[in-house]
Amino acid sequence: MESVVISVRIKSETKRALEKDGIDVEKAVKEFLNQRAAQIELRETVERMARSIRKNVKPSKKGFAVKSVREDRDADN
């Protein structure tokens, strides 16, 4: 997998406070950005699926659900 280098500037006090609390700043930034990217990919996938469903799935005929439930109940007897 190809990677790139980014640079982030934060206040030195911020970095010291995070490190004092045991946080690996580099690791935390990487994890945050990877999670954010995964959320974006997931949202895009869901949007594509929703568009596909709206385009390709036709609503059932009126009364279909009632008829189907009735058939299932009758089959149990």
Summarize the structure in words:
The chain is mainly α. The chain has one domain. It is built from 3 helices and no strands. The protein has helices spanning 12-20, 25-56, 64-76. The radius of gyration is 26 Å and the shape is elongated.
List the helices and strands and how they pair.
Layout: H1 12-20, H2 25-56, H3 64-76
Proportion of strand residues: under 5%
Q: What is the CA-atom radius of gyration, in angstroms?
A: 26 Å
Number of spatially distinct domains: 1
Structural class by secondary-structure content: mainly alpha
The strand count comes to 0
- Percent of residues in helical segments? over 70%
pLDDT under 50 segments (min length 5)? none
Distance between the termini: 59 Å
What kind of sheet is the major sheet?
none
- SSE succession: HHH
Query: What is the number of helical segments per DSSP (H or I, 4+ residues)?
Result: 3
Shape: elongated
The overall pLDDT, averaged over residues, is: 93
